[in-house]
Automatic annotation (TrEMBL):
Record CDD domains: Nitrogenase_NifN_1
Protein function: This protein may play a role in the biosynthesis of the prosthetic group of nitrogenase (FeMo cofactor).
Stated family: Belongs to the NifD/NifK/NifE/NifN family.
Keyword annotations: Nitrogen fixation
Record's protein name: Nitrogenase iron-molybdenum cofactor biosynthesis protein NifN
Organism, scientific name: Roseiarcus fermentans
Upper lineage: Bacteria, Pseudomonadati, Pseudomonadota, Alphaproteobacteria, Hyphomicrobiales
Record-linked NCBIfam families: nifN
Pathway terms, separated by semicolons: Cofactor biosynthesis; Fe-Mo cofactor biosynthesis
Cell membrane is among the record's keywords: no
Gene3D superfamilies for this protein: 6.10.250.1090, Nitrogenase molybdenum iron protein domain
Length: 462
């Protein structure tokens, strides 16, 4: 079993993780007609907004209750109610997702009770708008926990709690983790549809953060999972969760509706994708289409072509737990060695299965110290300084990636994604290789000569 090394210092040096509220807002952005609302100070929201905008290069409808000093002491219920009513009047959202921050969590307010009272007192004004609350203090957890808590909160707030005697035999719920890109989610949807099934992706950032430019200004998200689809999650035949942090959401759907689920910890390699395709074959009663078989054959060829470049390479990875596990499994499967592994939080059970001796809960300062001697660094854009100092190439993954364009359209799951991941990493290894030259192989070239040999050489030249 992998050893989990806890945080060993009081200060964070070049932080690796982003906060729980950001993760919750991330999930809320995957719902159609939504506005995420941070219950806390304006600064908390501004920081998350900057990261979202730099990563996605899109307008982000993120709002705040803007708690001030007085509200922090006396309580923020009035600020929360005012913010919700203002959003309803101005943006007319179908859904408002509330995420708490450390400021109000430390004070210990009854957030659920306050929202219930607001909804009862303002029933007429808030008609047609759903509200969900995720308790996500900044001082605990990271993006994964925030995302998971927000998805569970939306299920509890909107999904119908009934076990149906008859369900839609073609409908499948897909619960993607926060580590999947827009391209990943679109590809997973296409795979499911290729078997004649009807996927309901929740949350669906591929609809809301995929770079679509609307014809007019829209103050809410303009894509994502429809509210009606969230309400009818129990109509599906089956639920597929991707990432350990989505287990809680899948279990909640099962508890409310009786819909069974399967969990895939990652979809980065041949074996994992084979299992995914086998499940789709079972659910649909159809064999894999020719296009999927062709993609599998291309991945097999890429495995043969690429494994020479990975053998013996030392890879250092810093990422959220599920992304760390998936990438570490991929690199080890290709013959590489996990030289260092750093993650954001120790809450995930998947860390026990990361294929390396130890995983450090820490920051990019810890990562840089542990990654000395690595052939490749794998983390987000904040790892670029470590890459420069260590002289090792950087493969950018996760969130945020703000110094490269198109990060959300990088495909790394499924047969095609695994094939592209092999080529991406192998090309980085190839580009960083220092070939031996004929001159460096000559032991007599530029050798040191004694004074006597220098004199003899000089006489011959004369």
């Amino acid at each position: 079993m992998t050893t989990i090394l806890p945080v060993s210092k009081a200060a964070s040096v070049n932080p690796l993780k982003s906060s729980q509220p950001l993760g919750a807002a991330f999930a809320y952005l995957g719902v159609a007609g939504a506005v995420p609302l941070f219950h806390g100070s304006q600064g908390c929201t501004s920081f998350a907004l900057v990261l979202f905008v730099r990563h996605f290069k899109e307008t982000i409808p993120l709002q705040t209750t803007a708690m001030d000093e007085v509200a922090t002491i006396l309580g923020g219920a009035d600020h929360l109610e005012e913010a919700i009513l203002n959003l309803k009047a101005r943006a007319k959202p179908a859904f408002i997702g509330v995420a708490t921050t450390a400021l109000v969590e430390t004070r210990g307010e009854d957030f659920a009770g306050e929202i219930a009272a607001i909804r009862a007192r303002r029933a007429v004004e808030l008609d047609g708008t759903e509200i969900a609350l995720a308790k996500t203090p900044d001082f605990d957890g990271a993006i994964e926990e925030g995302w998971s808590k927000a998805v569970v909160a939306m299920i509890e707030a909107m999904a119908r709690r009934e076990v149906l005697s008859r369900r839609n035999a073609r409908r499948v719920n897909i619960l993607p983790g926060s580590h999947l890109t827009v391209a990943d989610i679109e590809h997973i949807r296409a795979l499911v549809e290729a078997f004649g099934l009807e996927p309901v992706v929740f949350p669906d950032i591929s609809g809301a953060l995929d770079g679509t430019v609307p014809e007019r200004w829209i103050p809410t998200t303009y894509g994502g999972t429809a509210i009606d689809d969230i309400r009818s999650l129990g109509d599906a035949r089956f639920t597929i969760a991707i990432g350990e942090h989505m287990r809680a959401a899948a279990e909640r759907i099962q508890a409310f509706t009786g819909v069974d689920y399967a969990l895939f910890r990652h979809l980065h390699g041949l074996k994992a994708v084979d299992r995914f395709v086998a499940l789709l074959t079972e659910l649909s009663g159809r064999t894999a289409p020719a296009s999927i078989r062709r993609s599998r054959a291309q991945l097999q060829d890429a495995l043969l072509d690429g494994h020479f470049h990975f053998s013996g390479k030392r890879v250092a990875i810093a990422a959220e737990p599920d992304l760390l596990y998936g990438l570490a499994s991929f690199f080890v499967g290709m013959g590489a060695e996990i030289h260092a592994a750093v993650t954001t939080t120790g809450h995930s059970k998947v860390l026990d299965h990361v294929p390396c001796e130890a995983v450090k809960i820490g920051d990019l300062g810890d990562f840089e110290a542990m990654a000395e001697g690595a052939d490749l660094l794998v983390t987000h854009s904040h790892g670029r300084q470590a890459s420069e100092r260590l002289g090792a190439p950087l493969m950018r993954v996760g969130f945020p990636i703000f110094d490269r364009l198109g990060s959300q359209h990088k495909l790394r799951v499924g047969y095609r994604g695994a094939r592209d991941l092999i080529f991406e990493a192998a090309n980085i290894f190839e580009g960083a290789r220092h070939d031996v030259t004929p001159d460096s192989l000559n032991p007599f070239l530029n050798r040191e000569m004694t004074d006597g040999r220098r004199a003899a050489s000089a006489n011959r030249q004369h």
